[in-house]
UniProtKB/TrEMBL annotation, chains A, B:
<feature type="binding site">
    <location>
        <position position="257"/>
    </location>
    <ligand>
        <name>sn-glycerol 3-phosphate</name>
    </ligand>
</feature>
<dbReference type="InterPro" id="IPR008927">
    <property type="entry name" value="6-PGluconate_DH-like_C_sf"/>
</dbReference>
<feature type="binding site">
    <location>
        <position position="257"/>
    </location>
    <ligand>
        <name>NADPH</name>
    </ligand>
</feature>
<keyword id="KW-0560">Oxidoreductase</keyword>
<feature type="binding site">
    <location>
        <position position="246"/>
    </location>
    <ligand>
        <name>sn-glycerol 3-phosphate</name>
    </ligand>
</feature>
<feature type="binding site">
    <location>
        <position position="258"/>
    </location>
    <ligand>
        <name>sn-glycerol 3-phosphate</name>
    </ligand>
</feature>
<feature type="domain" description="Glycerol-3-phosphate dehydrogenase NAD-dependent N-terminal">
    <location>
        <begin position="3"/>
        <end position="162"/>
    </location>
</feature>
<feature type="binding site">
    <location>
        <position position="283"/>
    </location>
    <ligand>
        <name>NADPH</name>
    </ligand>
</feature>
<feature type="binding site">
    <location>
        <position position="140"/>
    </location>
    <ligand>
        <name>sn-glycerol 3-phosphate</name>
    </ligand>
</feature>
<feature type="binding site">
    <location>
        <position position="193"/>
    </location>
    <ligand>
        <name>sn-glycerol 3-phosphate</name>
    </ligand>
</feature>
<dbReference type="InterPro" id="IPR006168">
    <property type="entry name" value="G3P_DH_NAD-dep"/>
</dbReference>
<feature type="binding site">
    <location>
        <position position="281"/>
    </location>
    <ligand>
        <name>NADPH</name>
    </ligand>
</feature>
<feature type="binding site">
    <location>
        <position position="105"/>
    </location>
    <ligand>
        <name>sn-glycerol 3-phosphate</name>
    </ligand>
</feature>
<keyword id="KW-0521">NADP</keyword>
<feature type="active site" description="Proton acceptor">
    <location>
        <position position="193"/>
    </location>
</feature>
<keyword id="KW-1208">Phospholipid metabolism</keyword>
<dbReference type="InterPro" id="IPR013328">
    <property type="entry name" value="6PGD_dom2"/>
</dbReference>
Length: 334, 334
């Protein structure tokens, strides 16, 4: 059994910390907020995971050096917007060669870096070339992992040994972990799938059915794959658990913020009002500029992403948008 | 506009006939049952498509030669078990070089032939090598096409001109048709996806969640693709609308007989009792022997299909089956 440090105490960090502790690992969870640490430690409950009890064996702390020291694995589970600042703060306490697993998904604005690329960027001056970075991603509602429901996930790393070590640690009685050599492809899927989930929500909001939604999910992943492979990622990643698998869960779930924001827009609400009503970050909207920039750079056509951009940012009527997609020039599937 | 003959008056044949007639094509629908012809002609309703009115312009007939003569396109829309006998009966009236589109899905027991291969087999003595055969397949609930809801579909043929002609005729204001050069791959997906839909239903019946279902759908299509590419089909077909797209619709729909049969089994009913309660053909169960035979022939591992076979035909407890799948040797995703 291993020692694991977890940075971040949101739903996903806590659901994974509970699973790891129940598997027998020694788990320390860090949060930047002392009040959150106190509340989690005392109540052993996470407010967004009702009914789940946090094992007594988990240590909560707001002491960052303590959380980073002497761990077999360090799990980054803070929201994507805090990844750079958290790693910057933690870097002095992270040993060279530390196995680091990231579960945050997103592209950093301006740099277009994925989350493990941001981590590498922050650590590079201290530790290069000894970094062992893994992206952990797949079709994984935290709420289901918190209930021990069967789940699969991908541990992706350029370094096969790092991926296998993460596979060993995250394998549990209900979680099956596959290794994958394509960290960049896995992270690209995680960052871009929310745009397609937004499109699926808009389709539902317009009153369209399963045929339209399956078409958007399938053709949406086709265009993400077209972009990703042009950027050097592996085609099979996009057909796998972190690609189409994660998009199926996100695009068909009524728990997804991206799907629900799209739903409101499809029902006639303005994008600005829908964003306001959701009240939290809608990753799909934030990912649009990055996707378009990468597509332009790679000279790849992404008709669904471009149409979502027109609806969200340029006032195109959703019904008209669907007609535009349907009436494009007749073509071959591949 | 074109003349189209449709053999078969089930939900899918009627939903397509209505769309084609509304697009301006001249449509004749044949049924083997004179009573059905009379009822459809008089009521302009199909009992399983409530609320849909059949256009007055459609001609219904039980005269097979009339339905097959002088058509730009002949659509085979009979259940898969009737494809061979229908084509045998119609063959003398089908002109050489006739464009034939099939929508029935399945593998013929014993021969392992797909439906267009069965058609080719029946017509070969009369017409070879002048056959123009297209498989039309995708994520397409008939109920949604009957309501003009946006839908995508694939027209697959070895002969590109045949695929394009079908594309032209089936394109409508709400249906987008992609051509595909891999007829065999498209038909293999249609025949085998129902086994995975059965597995998804079993998972739901056990009370498992979206994570498990997305994993079964993703990994299920991975093993169908592994088999199909070994048998000469194109990998991209399995990642496309007739592959993962159709499986998403079938595996997540509560309208699918295969999903519902699995659901009952997951809830504890015996496979025999579940089959009896569904009361209609459960294609996923019928497809298992063919899938296993092809997998053995191609020397390909299909763990999900093999596990479904154990549950359906050899008394394995569904919960135990899930544990077996989760506890397989750790591996790489691809």
């Amino acid at each position: 059994m291993s020692k694991v440090g977890i940075l971040g105490a949101g739903t996903w960090g806590i659901a994974l910390s509970r699973m790891l502790a129940n598997t027998g690992h020694t788990v320390t969870v860090w949060s930047a907020l002392p009040d959150e640490v106190k509340q989690l430690d005392q109540t052993r409950q996470q407010k967004n995971l009702p009914g789940m009890t946090i094992p007594a064996s988990i240590t909560f702390t707001s002491d960052l050096p303590a959380a980073c020291t002497d761990q077999a694995l360090l799990l980054l589970a803070v929201p994507s917007v805090y990844v750079r600042s958290t790693v910057k703060q933690a870097a002095p306490f992270i040993p060279a060669g530390q196995l680091i697993v990231d579960v945050a998904k997103g592209l950093e604005p301006d740099t277009m870096l994925t989350m493990t690329q941001v981590i590498a960027d922050e650590l590079s001056q201290l530790h290069a070339p000894k970094m062992r970075l893994v992206a952990l991603s797949g079709p994984t509602h935290a709420e289901e992992v918190a209930l021990d429901l069967p789940t699969t996930i991908v541990a992706a790393a350029d370094d096969e040994e790092a991926a296998k070590q993460a596979q060993d640690i995250f394998t549990s009685s209900f979680m099956r972990v596959y290794t994958n050599p394509d960290r960049y492809g896995v992270e690209l899927c995680g960052a871009l799938k929310n745009i397609i989930a937004l499109a699926a929500g808009i389709s539902d909001g317009l009153g369209y059915g399963d045929n339209a939604k399956a078409a958007l999910i399938t053709r949406g992943m086709t265009e993400i794959k077209r972009l990703g492979t042009k950027l050097g990622a592996h085609a099979a990643t996009f057909d796998g658990l972190a690609g189409i698998g994660d998009l199926i869960v996100t695009g068909t779930s009524t728990h997804s913020r991206n799907h629900n924001c799209g739903l409101l827009i499809g029902q006639g609400m303005s994008p600005a009002a829908a964003k306001k009503q959701i009240g939290m970050v809608v990753e799909g909207i934030n990912a649009i500029p990055g996707a378009l920039e990468l597509a332009a750079k790679a000279n790849v056509s992404m008709p669904i992403v471009e149409t979502v951009d027109q609806v969200i940012n340029h006032g195109l009527d959703p019904k008209e948008a669907v007609q535009q997609l349907l009436n494009r020039k007749k073509k071959a599937e591949f």
